[in-house]
Design a protein that fits this description.
The complex is a heterodimer of chains A (about 400) and B (about 350). Chain A is about 30% helix and about 20% strand. Classes of the chains: A alpha/beta (about 400), B alpha/beta (about 350). Chain B: It comes from Nostocoides veronense.
Chain lengths: ~400, ~350
């Protein structure tokens, strides 16, 4: 098993609730309440959960955008959670973040070159001053954008292209870990696949480890090696992708999986639907014992008093982490292995470059933002430099990474 | 309301209430609908000749990405487009055989809400924040049925109970912000079904909701539809939700229908390259080792829709004819239509 690169231990983030004229603290929103996990080199850890479960706060804690209330985040053995000043700055180079909304996470008054080059101002040792512009163009090329567009502004790009800019900024400092907070949620279906494929390609080329935070369980399954399910600030289940999806042992995971619609009408009426009653309780006042007990059909007395630990529990085949006193595996979605099915290339794109860039270079695209590209022959020469992985297609995780 | 003549499928009872009767179960006929928006940059052609129909008790899904014209279609049927900038230069929207676009305003107001109702994606901004939810639901009865305050509030409580809002009697006086997203969407549904409409349009009803709540809301919608034999138009980009709910699907691209089919046929064998591309670009929960094949490029700018087939710049099958001749939506197999010059080839692939 590859080495552990990032380690979270008993990570807690409580936000104080202040009320009244004196703004006294009346309680806490327990956004993240004791999270433990290891992230290995080059792997993707998916984090799924519903809104308010603390998954985004977890992402912000991992890059130290928020200081944790308690607990540690260790990057290669060095504690980030309690570092400060120079030390923290040096550590941060290794962990970068990509945000959900490509419309608000890019400064509209900065050019793409300035946005992607800004990390070099803070970490001047990464690329010497003279080479920065060239490095930014390389990065644009790497994420499938036209390097000639370095002087454009964010509004001149579509949503998918903006997300590529956010990714280019994220990988500018050559980090080892990239935290992706809902990176494809704001994108249209047909564009979402382009960005997912790009992220897989970058991981293969750069050996990045991802923490992929999302609410879409299908996307997370597709991209992740391991998956953790969060509920009210705690992890309910953690395991390899096939363990969590094929033999989930926590009732919450089972309910989540049963609620995800599958794009196949022949499964209509044949799938088991677990309907949860009520809404997620407030994280300011989470239920005692197991936090899921108020909505769980299996809950007994023990669940109301004893907090179930996230420990290895048998799942029928082996064992994986689950935080349920009465963990037992249940097949919710029968899985088909389609790894030998190649999509028909007459209908879809298997190139990693931004298809808009290709189309633009070929002169076939109606520019989405009403700006005709000033494509030159030189730019076209750049554009046609193939960017592909060894096998020439994106979707596959190499086998050696499968058993991470 | 003096224009009702001939054997029109509407009758008026003594109290002035109009009853519309569908002919052979046909509720809605949209014929060659065009909608354009006049903007400073030019004319954006949001809908360019869309025709479809809806029968009683049927679920029709209109599937498309942002900018495909699916929401504009819904707003045109509902009669809530801002005109200007919107303009409907051509087309007809017939409800029980009567064209809503040429109907007098007072009659149209009657149809809206009482006969055709709509739910929106964002329940928080669709509800008025300064009125209690019960008051807003009751308004339907006060405005359309002339009910008094206490009777209409009693009706509101009944509806809130029907859509499974716990402790409806106490919560009828609560304000929208005091409800969760799922509960707010239930209140929207209660308002929409208040007057027992024959057609319910749901515009991305669950997009803003979590997956477990989405399942609850979709289940409620289906239940109400069956109970009341409503015609349901579900507008969405989510191929998963469509597969669970719809009877028929109409796929929209750049303001046109590119494919219509029954839900089983469409997922088994799409007849348009765009539909096929969409199906191959979404990750599936029940598959592992899947290769995601993205559709190239971006949807076109509606100010400059490419000549020929609007999908041709993104289509890998495109030939010269696709760049010059616009393919008509034509029958390519029994009960299915596709707007592709090479639809048969796509079907056989």
């Amino acid at each position: 098993m590859p080495e552990v690169i990032l380690q979270a231990r008993d990570l807690v983030k409580h936000y104080p609730i202040r009320r009244g004229i004196l703004r006294t603290v009346q309680g806490h929103v327990k956004a993240v309440d004791g999270v433990n996990f290891d992230l290995h080199k080059g792997e993707t850890l998916g984090v799924v959960g519903e809104s308010g479960c603390g998954k985004s706060t977890l992402g912000r804690l991992l890059v130290r955008l928020e200081a944790p209330t308690s607990g540690t985040v260790e990057f290669e053995g060095a504690d980030m959670a309690n570092a400060s000043g120079k030390e923290l700055r040096a550590l941060r180079r290794n962990i970068q973040i990509v945000f959900q909304d490509p419309y608000t996470s890019l400064n509209p008054r900065m050019t793409v070159g300035d946005i992607i080059g800004e990390p070099f101002e803070i970490h001047p040792e990464v690329v010497p001053k003279g080479g920065r512009r060239k490095r930014v163009q390389e990065l644009l090329d790497l994420v499938g954008l036209n390097p000639e567009h370095i002087n454009r502004y964010p509004h001149q790009f579509s949503g998918g292209q903006r997300q590529r800019i956010g990714i280019a900024r994220g990988i500018a400092l050559d980090p080892k870990v990239l935290i992706c907070d809902e990176p494809v949620s704001a994108l249209d279906v047909s564009v979402q696949a382009q960005v997912v494929n790009l992220m897989e390609k970058l991981q293969n080329e750069l050996g990045l480890a991802y923490v992929f935070i999302a609410h879409d369980l299908s996307v997370v399954r597709h991209i992740s090696d391991r998956v953790s399910v969060m509920y009210l600030g705690k992890m309910a289940e953690l395991g390899h992708e096939e363990e969590v999806y094929e033999r989930p042992t926590h009732p919450y995971t089972q309910a989540l999986l049963s609620a995800v619609p599958v794009p196949d009408p022949t499964l209509r009426g044949k799938r088991q639907h677990i309907v949860l009653q009520g809404d997620v309780p407030s994280p300011a006042n989470p239920p005692s014992g197991c936090r899921f007990h108020t909505r769980c059909w299996k809950a007994r007395e023990k669940c109301k008093t004893d907090v179930p630990e996230l420990i290895l529990r048998p799942d029928g085949v082996g064992e994986h982490f689950s935080a349920c006193h009465f963990a037992e595996p249940q097949v919710i979605v029968p899985t088909t292995d389609v790894s030998d099915v190649e999509p028909d290339e007459r209908f879809a794109e298997v190139d990693h470059r931004d298809p808009a860039t290709i189309a633009e270079a070929e002169g076939t695209l109606q520019d989405a933002d009403g700006l005709r590209p000033e494509t030159t022959t030189e730019a076209q020469a750049n554009l046609f430099a193939p960017i592909q992985d060894d096998e020439g297609h994106p979707g596959r995780v190499p086998d050696e990474r499968r058993d991470v | 309301m003096s224009t009702t003549t001939s054997a029109a499928p509407q009758t008026r009872s003594g109290d002035g209430k109009i009853t519309y009767t569908p002919v052979d179960g046909r509720l809605l006929d949209v014929e060659d609908l065009h909608v354009e928006f006049h903007t400073e940059d030019g004319v954006a052609k949001a809908i360019n000749g869309v025709s479809f129909h809806l029968d009683q008790g049927e679920s029709l899904a209109i599937l498309g990405e942002s900018g495909s014209g699916k929401s504009v279609t819904a707003q045109a049927i509902m009669g809530i487009l801002d005109m200007p900038p919107a303009k409907i230069p051509e087309g007809a929207i017939k409800y029980c055989g009567l064209d809503l676009l040429t109907m007098p305003d007072d009659q149209r107001r009657w149809v809206r809400g009482a006969e055709i109702a709509m739910i929106f994606q964002d329940a928080l901004s669709s509800l008025n924040p300064v009125f209690p939810v019960g008051w807003q639901i009751a308004e339907m009865f006060r405005q359309h049925r002339g009910m008094n305050k206490s009777d209409s509030l009693a009706q509101a409580v009944r509806l809130m109970e029907r859509v499974s809002i716990p402790a409806a009697k106490d919560r009828v006086k609560a304000y929208p912000h005091q409800f969760s997203g799922g509960m707010r969407q239930r209140i929207m549904i209660a308002m929409a079904i208040a007057l027992d409409p024959a057609v319910l349009i749901a515009d991305e009803p669950t997009t803003a909701l979590d997956v477990t709540v989405q399942a609850q809301i979709m289940a409620l919608l289906q239940e109400l539809q069956q109970e009341r034999q409503m015609g349901l138009i579900l507008i969405t980009h989510d191929l998963g939700v469509v597969a669970d709910v719809a009877d028929r699907i109409a796929v929209m691209y750049a303001g046109r229908l590119v494919e219509t089919a029954n839900v089983y046929d469409l997922y088994a064998k799409p007849a348009h390259p765009y539909t096929r591309g969409l199906l191959e670009s979404i990750p599936r929960l029940d598959q592992k080792g899947q290769t995601l094949a993205a559709i190239g490029g971006l949807p076109p700018n509606l100010l400059r829709i490419p000549p020929g087939c609007a999908f041709n710049p993104r289509c890998r099958m495109a030939q010269d004819i696709c760049r010059t001749d616009r393919p008509e939506l034509r029958e390519v197999a029994p009960g299915r239509k596709s707007a592709c010059h090479f639809a048969e080839e796509v079907l056989d692939a």
